[in-house]
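Objective 1b: paired records.
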Amino acid sequence: MSAVRPPRRRFLAAAAALPLLIGTLGACGYGSQRQDGGGKATATGKKVDGLDSVKIGYFPNLTHATALVGDHEGIIQRELGGTKVKSTTFNAGPSEIEALNAGSIDIGWIGPSPAINGYVKTHGTGLRIVSGSASGGVKLVVNPEKIKSLDDVKGKKIATPQKGNTQDVAFLNWIAQRGWKVDPQSGKGDVSVVRTDNKVTPDAFKSGSVDGAWVPEPTASRLVAGGGKVLLDESTLWPDRKFVITNVIVSQKFLARHPDVVEAVLRGSVKTNAWIKSNPAKARASANAALGALAGKGLPPEILDPAWRSIRVTDDPLASTLDAEARHAVKAGLLSEPDLRGVYDLTLLNKVLKAEGRPTVDAAGLGAK
């Protein structure tokens, strides 16, 4: 990946380019509502800011480990006292952004591409990124009988989860760095980029419909369990092997009205990440139990263990890498140059970090004024 440059100062019809990057928001539902309100802890004690409940959203995915574990273990709920956590899960970023804009959720865990587009689509009025959550967990997995080296990727069919999603943009950028040409809309060119839902990618790989996939965990480890080989870990392409895969976002209206509630959720997020780092085995089991509760069954060890090892929870939103990912989308032809100034508001996160005796983090020049 190229070195990170200062944030952009232009906005060139970014909203017009959004359908190319995130698709039609209205095509997806709001997700699956958790009837029990999430974690093991119950809402007891004083309500934060007098609020009855806070609605959070996340994916049933290991890259959302902070939310999975924090909700399942009740860590977030305990920080909210009598304000009840109501959880909703989503399968795609656009539907979560739609839910945030509609007020169906207040706070969400989400990937960088939908966060960028959610901000741009509302001309900077819809959301703020208020914390980091996870880094890593993305790999290029291939059929070792067809692809033995990076050069062999040329001419092959490689799956990504969705046109313009975070992994799709990363793969297109990698292709361009190798000097190969691919049309970003059709996916046709020196490499055939096949946009395939993560749920069906393992079957497509098994049938030979695709020769490999640039995908997040646990899909990558599913492919490995099915005979695939990791050809490239995306983290090796980034400085210090760190790049944002999951952030915490909040509705700007909710942030303005209930900052104490947002701060409490961030305390829960920070404490969850600390617990995950201190208790990796217990945290892995907790995340899998949460997945089991949401999906009906957890992941087997041969998938769970390697997937978990490749993901790093982080409070730092790694803001410079989000700006780089936006530039990669522009370079790929999937996004007009956005003005991302103000996309971050890390005030409450840094307040929580200071109280925990931890170093504060910065917004790489993209913070709210």
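Objective 1b, second protein:
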Amino acid sequence: MKTKIIATLIFVLALLQMSYSQNSLDIDRSKVLSVGSDFTPPASVALMRGDFKQIDWKGLENKVIILDFFDTFCGTCISSMPKLQELQNKLADKIQIFNITWQDRPTMDKFFNENEYLKEHKVNLPVIYDDKDLFSLFPHIGKPHVAIVYKGKVKAITFHRSINEENLLALIQKGSIDLPLKDDFGKGDLQSSSDSKVIAGTWISRYQDGVPIQGLQIKRDSISGQTISSVYNRSVFISIINAWSIIKPPTYIRLPQRVDWKVRDSSIYHDFNNQGEEWIRKYGICYERRDFNQVSDSVRARAILHDLHSFFGLKTYYSTKMMDCIIVEPCAVKENPDLKITKGYKVTGSSGIRLMIEWSGKFPPVLDKLKSKETLYTLGSFKNLEELNQQLEVYGVKAKYGREEMEVLVVEEN
């Protein structure tokens, strides 16, 4: 139940984030700018915050202009703002960053007045609100969405993680830069014109610029009768995990300890350091499989897994490994009348306890020896195992450090 609720919330938030963009796609496509286009700014914009009363676009021509499109309900947008402010402070004579939103002035006033995180980090970048004109030049669905303009030309339309000092200084020095292209309307297609007579098969390529990241999808084409399985711009490891998740749906969070790497260099298979699009551009893959077989998704996923194993010379399988863990087990009920839980969450069964412990990111993987399925537990925040156990013991449950055999996914090079 907990997993379903989380998934539903993520889906609803995704719909909220896409709602404005999707309702605004009746734009004049002839006005849409691409990398290399001349940038003609709007005649006027609604502006707040920062040091600008109005924008002299011509006066900014010798600076790198960063147009950062955001929403107030986009967590990534908000968390990236302090980094942008630091860049603006450090490179003030070389760059100018504008936050841009379609939302109105009252919404913006409320947002910035109440957001303690942005106040703490002293974020005060100029904000263009009630925007339609810049969006029409750089239409998108997902946010953050960033356009870079320099000397009157669009130099990049890219992802927020590409906005760093190194890239901006390189642009100033060279006059151009090659960053991963963010095109929310791009479409992957691995079949070239030479494949025109091929009606079924498997295609694998490297990263495709301008194609949105997409995990494994399996869809049936009602016209051709084909089943099309596809992955675009994901790591080899995540693509394999996607297939395994259909064959053997996960019952736990796959923490790093739950993967046993038996390869020469695991960094080419998975983005361990969260480098994002720059890493994906170097090591990401695109995959398509088209066939007519009418089989279950789990059978099809095994075929996909076989393709990935064969192409990359890998073998993946489940095994067990001795590791440090948190053991959740029954204990005597311990009354605690002084216990106060603020902002508590209801979780169902010991699997809910396990997920909450692992989601916290404070502990090793959890081994569930309680095996409770129906009991509803209310848990609040906790900083350590002692605080967690104060909450668990009222239900006759405790968590302790231990060392046990735990299931792991083995990734092995042939």
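The radius of gyration is 25 Å. The CA atoms of residues 241 and 315 lie 12 Å apart.
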